[in-house]
């Protein structure tokens, strides 16, 4: 049985293909370079959605002997690939925009094309909203990356439609390649952000400060009987959050009692964070550090 993340990823591919068809039709009806740029970005959307599906499916595999920490990091690779595709699309857009600028050609007036392009933008906006919600629900970096790129596409498409309308109203054909170039710039910024976040995940970047503060608070308030916790380390791997720390207990405490404290902390952390993977190393009081997390 497929997961919600996998079903969402499959639907994302279908939506991306439909939007690509609509945008290609809008470009074919007008010859607008800006609309061509928008359509080329949708090619990236299709490839990114397909990569997200492959990554989500692979990431859902359980841990095995060769991958004892699971396969969750696979989702970051789809976002890195998406960033590379975005760069390629931006280069193609800039080439088309430069050619149109030199030739001074402009788009042809077509209300049908504008309607088609508007429908494509509306479909993208609706799906991006749903994709963001589901991505957050299942904590999928691949789905969230796809959603953020779609939102960038929506903003870009809205700007392109407004610009093409201005060309029709003003007759200034140079607005079309200018808007195409601006579209390329917006795509590059979006791609850079996605790649930056994905590389951070691959490099085992710590969780954000706000989440780290929540983790410290949970440990502090549920470690009654212990003395302190120190060397707290965190990282994300897809939908998983890894938490590791040392727990200092009185030297005379029995193992069973120390274990009970660990169980209590782990239960509290899992209630606070879904998909938390927790490792606690118990130490005697001689190992205490003044910089550790105090026990309330």
TrEMBL record:
<dbReference type="InterPro" id="IPR050291">
    <property type="entry name" value="CDF_Transporter"/>
</dbReference>
<dbReference type="InterPro" id="IPR036837">
    <property type="entry name" value="Cation_efflux_CTD_sf"/>
</dbReference>
<feature type="transmembrane region" description="Helical">
    <location>
        <begin position="110"/>
        <end position="130"/>
    </location>
</feature>
<keyword id="KW-0813">Transport</keyword>
<dbReference type="InterPro" id="IPR058533">
    <property type="entry name" value="Cation_efflux_TM"/>
</dbReference>
<dbReference type="InterPro" id="IPR027469">
    <property type="entry name" value="Cation_efflux_TMD_sf"/>
</dbReference>
<feature type="transmembrane region" description="Helical">
    <location>
        <begin position="76"/>
        <end position="98"/>
    </location>
</feature>
<comment type="similarity">
    <text>Belongs to the cation diffusion facilitator (CDF) transporter (TC 2.A.4) family.</text>
</comment>
<dbReference type="InterPro" id="IPR002524">
    <property type="entry name" value="Cation_efflux"/>
</dbReference>
<feature type="transmembrane region" description="Helical">
    <location>
        <begin position="150"/>
        <end position="172"/>
    </location>
</feature>
<dbReference type="Pfam" id="PF16916">
    <property type="entry name" value="ZT_dimer"/>
</dbReference>
<keyword id="KW-1133">Transmembrane helix</keyword>
<dbReference type="Pfam" id="PF01545">
    <property type="entry name" value="Cation_efflux"/>
</dbReference>
<protein>
    <submittedName>
        <fullName>Cation diffusion facilitator family transporter</fullName>
    </submittedName>
</protein>
<feature type="transmembrane region" description="Helical">
    <location>
        <begin position="35"/>
        <end position="56"/>
    </location>
</feature>
<keyword id="KW-0472">Membrane</keyword>
<keyword id="KW-0812">Transmembrane</keyword>
<dbReference type="InterPro" id="IPR027470">
    <property type="entry name" value="Cation_efflux_CTD"/>
</dbReference>
<feature type="domain" description="Cation efflux protein cytoplasmic">
    <location>
        <begin position="208"/>
        <end position="285"/>
    </location>
</feature>
<feature type="domain" description="Cation efflux protein transmembrane">
    <location>
        <begin position="10"/>
        <end position="203"/>
    </location>
</feature>
């Amino acid at each position: 049985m497929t997961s919600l993340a996998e079903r969402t990823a499959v639907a994302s591919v279908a939506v991306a293909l439909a939007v690509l068809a609509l945008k290609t039709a809008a470009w074919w009806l007008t010859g607008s370079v800006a609309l061509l740029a928008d359509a080329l970005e949708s090619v990236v959307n299709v490839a990114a959605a397909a990569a997200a599906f492959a990554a989500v499916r692979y990431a859902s595999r359980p841990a095995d002997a060769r991958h004892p920490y699971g396969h969750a990091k696979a989702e970051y690779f789809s976002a890195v690939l998406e960033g590379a595709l975005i760069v390629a699309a931006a280069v193609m857009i800039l080439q088309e925009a430069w050619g149109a600028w030199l030739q001074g050609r402009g788009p042809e007036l077509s209300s049908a094309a504008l309607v088609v392009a508007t429908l494509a933008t509306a479909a993208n906006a609706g799906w991006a909203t749903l994709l963001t919600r589901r991505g957050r629900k299942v904590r999928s970096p691949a789905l969230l990356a796809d959603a953020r790129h779609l939102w960038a596409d929506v903003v870009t498409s809205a700007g392109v439609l407004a610009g093409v309308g201005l060309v029709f109203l003003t007759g200034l054909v140079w607005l079309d390649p200018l808007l195409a170039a601006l579209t390329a710039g917006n795509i590059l910024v979006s791609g850079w952000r996605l790649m930056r976040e994905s590389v951070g995940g691959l490099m085992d970047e710590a969780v954000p400060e706000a989440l780290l503060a929540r983790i410290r608070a949970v440990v502090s308030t549920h470690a009654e009987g212990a003395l302190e916790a120190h060397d707290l380390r965190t990282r994300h791997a897809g939908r998983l959050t890894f938490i590791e720390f040392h727990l200092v207990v009185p030297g005379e405490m029995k193992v069973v009692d120390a274990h009970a404290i660990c169980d209590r902390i782990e239960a509290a952390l899992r209630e606070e964070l879904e998909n938390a993977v927790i490792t606690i190393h118990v130490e005697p009081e001689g190992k205490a550090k003044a910089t550790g997390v105090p026990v309330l």
